Structures are given as structure tokens and as C-alpha cells.
Amino acid sequence: xxxxxxxxxxxxxxxxxxxxxxxxxxxxxxxxxxxxxxxxxxxxxxxxxxxxxxxxxxxxxxxxxxxxxxxxxxxxxxxxxxxxxxxxxxxxxxxxxxxxxxxxxxxxxxxxxxxxxxxxxxxxxxxxxxxxxxxxxxxxxxxxxxxxxxxxxxxxxxxxxxxxxxxxxxxxxxxxxxxxxxxxxxxxxxxxxxxxxxxxxxxxxxxxxxxxxxxxxxxxxxxxxxxxxxxxxxxxxxxxxxxxxxxxxxxxxxxxxxxxxxxxxxxxxxxxxxxxxxxxxxxxxxxxxxxxxxxxxxxxxxxxxxxxxxxxxxxxxxxxxxxxxxxxxxxxxxxxxxxxxxxxxxxxxxxxxxxxxxxxxxxxxxxxxxxxxxxxxxxxxxxxxxxxxxxxxxxxxxxxxxxxxxxxxxxxxxxxxxxxxxxxxxxxxxxxxxxxxxxxxxxxxxxx
Length: 448
Ligand code: S3P
Description:
The protein is of the alpha/beta class. It folds into 2 domains: 2-18 and 231-446, Enolpyruvate transferase domain (UDP-n-acetylglucosamine1-carboxyvinyl-transferase, Chain); 20-215, Alpha-beta prism (UDP-n-acetylglucosamine1-carboxyvinyl-transferase, Chain). It is built from 14 helices and 23 strands. It has helices spanning 20-32, 46-57, 93-103, 124-132, 167-177, 195-202, 233-244, 264-271, 308-311, 316-325, 345-355, 386-397, 418-427, 430-441, and strands at 2-4, 11-15, 36-40, 61-64, 71-74, 87-88, 109-113, 136-139, 148-151, 159-161, 182-187, 207-210, 213-218, 227-228, 250-257, 275-284, 287-295, 303-304, 329-332, 359-363, 366-370, 379-381, 403-406. The strands form 6 sheets. It has a 4-stranded mixed beta sheet, with helices on both faces. Strands 4-5-3-14 form a 4-stranded mixed beta sheet, with helices on one face. Strands 6-7-9-8 form a 4-stranded mixed beta sheet. Helix 10 runs parallel beside helix 11 and helix 10 runs parallel beside helix 12 (386-397). Residues 436-448 have low confidence and may be disordered. Shikimate-3-phosphate binds at residues 21, 94, 166-168, 171, 193, 313-314.
């Protein structure tokens, strides 16, 4: 349970934990490589730990160093051991779908299971392409849901047009493509996050993008490499909105990933009138990272649709909260994928916004939110979904009276220190005050 009260403007400087998508991939690609790989700033959230446990069950040696976020993985040259018993992916769709791509190429049978939420998520989207490549997969649950039974073997290359824009489908196919002889291609209708492609290149596996088509040539073994995981912009998103929507706030978020396929949240907030500066300071392992500098103000409504969606898919809960704080009517559409995330996020957002007194209309693929009505502190459910819990704790910072979020253990899947940072931003920090004069000398510029 998490309790939040109306908060004064934020003035501080923070960092966020390592990126979840990148941490999963760093483990998997290191495990497939030909040697020892050091991963720094790894996210020790439950989802990534599910990937680590799964890989250990497959015979990969992974060493965690206490009190640091350093992990050392001994690559297995693409050859895993047959696991004993089922592999538990916990709450993590990324673990199940990406691992399916690798297991499809292993000469043994494996079975992937998950918690109640993951057991309701669609797996046909990876079963189909991996079956076309020659593996035998069966989603044993109702309507193509987990458990996922995989009978791996030798694979053939395919060219596959994905039915939904999804980095998980694309990545499962590309990882399987490492084991085929020839060119495996994925054609996407839009652009999903490209961490797999960037990381494979960093591990010296060439990946080509021609328009919407991404191709890999197999067989290939990633060359062992060290990798530093940048901060997670999806975790930064909560503080971005908390600061951008509160006049008088000033927040610096340092060492955050700024991969252009993930910064949709920044573009959308800027469109809503937010004052955000983005400074790219590092290009490390093929990923961009740097600082986000946010000055609070009054947001205005926008329409979030089409190509906005894949670029900000995990940030829609907090963008809906931003919509409730903005002047005018915010419309979110083309976001039907939200119905099959950790929970039905459209239904969860609509329920919680209404409980806080917001006028919101639910649509099949999104919602319409009438902004700037005063938010009412209330008792809200997380629906077992980390991003719903964290987004509505931020809404609580703007509400009259106390907001209580129930069932917040789920936050540990992606952001174990969320509560600590929430307490910190409410307290403020001296560091920023000392730096303000320097920042003040620069001309304030809106992004783009
Ligand atoms: C992810 C891709 C997205 C995202 C998820 C993480 C990834 O899912 O929502 O949280 O790491 O590849 P889809 O591929 O289903 O869009």
C-alpha cells in the first residue's frame, strides 16, 4: 500500500534505475555470446530477475555482486542445457516472448509458465512466426495464452510481417534468426523500440534496417562484450509528468536512456506545452543517454494516436494522468494493445481517473479525458500492474486529500526504489539549488 498527499513543487536532481527492456536483452545476448560479459547498472527488478533465473535454469552462469548493480554473465556460445521442470517467467512478458525465440532453436523441449497476469497475455504472436521457422510451439492456455510449450530444433529463415507493432515479437524472431542459415527479416508496420538491434550490433552481430524491414544473417554468435545499462526513461516518465505539470517545479533527471524509439513521452509532453530540455551526453553500447531538465508549467490537452503509441506504449498510464491535469480534452486512440498488458490498462486508467473525480469516456482503443477538474484523493487499485500503481501515486501528488494505492508490491517488477524517490522528490534537495544559477545562464529552450 502507498499513501500520497498533495505536494509542493518539486525541486531536485535524481537518477532512475537501469532500463528494464535493455537489462533483459543484456542478460540474454550475453548468455548467447562466446565469453564473459560484465553488465553494469543492471535493473534488479523482479522482471529482469525472472530472466536471470530462467537463464540459470538453462545452465548459464550468472554472478550478482551484492550492493552493486553489476552482473557477470558467462556466455554459452548459443548452447543452453535442457531445463529441469518449467521455467517461471513471473510477471514478465519480455522474458517469455524473447526467451521463446532462443528456445525455439535449442534441441530440447521446454515449458514457460507465468503468474496469473502473464497467464492471460497473448502468446500466439510469437508462436506463429517461430512455428513458421520450423519450431513446434503450443500455447496451452485459453485463446493462445501461457503456458508455452516449445519443442526446439533447427530453424529456417523467414521474412515476417508482424501483425502488431511489437518489439517483443521482432526480438523473438531476430534472436531465433541468430540460429538459422541465411537471412531472417521482420517487417514492422511502425517503429518499435530497437534495443535488440542496437545491442546485437554492439556484440558485433550485423543487423540491417531498410525502411520498415530489419534483417539478420545467421548463424552468428554474439562476441562477448561489457555493457552499461542507461537509466529507464519509462521510470523517469513518472517524475517527468510530476514536475512538468506543476508550476514552480524544476527537476533534473541524469543518466537516463534517450533512445529515440523510447522518447515519445518527451515529444508528447512538449506538445502539451511542457518545458523540457534533453541533453544527449553519452553514446554507449549503441544507446544514447543523458539528462532531462524539466521546468514546471501548465499543460494543455493533446491527441495521442498513431505512431505516438508504440513510442510511448508503457507511458500511456502516466500520460493519461497528465491529460487529467491539462487544460482541455486529451484524446488517446489506436492504443488497443493496452488491453493486453499486465492488466487491461484502458479499463484500469478509466476506473481510477473516475474514482478521482475525472470526467473520462472509455473507448475500445483508448479514452477521452476532460482535464483540469480538481482531483479528489481516493482509495485506488493498482490492478496488480506496476505502471498503474506508479502513475496514480503521481496523480495523488495533485489531489486534494490523501490518495491510497492498494497492492503496490507489483512496483518491484520495474522500480524497486520508487517509493524512496517519491519521498525524495517531495522533500526536495540542495544539490539543484546550488546548480540553478548555472542552468539559469542558459537560454531556456523548448525541445525541438
Ligand atoms: C517491451 C516491449 C513492449 C513494452 C514492454 C517491453 C520490450 O511490449 O510494452 O513493456 O522490452 O521489448 P510489446 O512488444 O508487446 O509492444
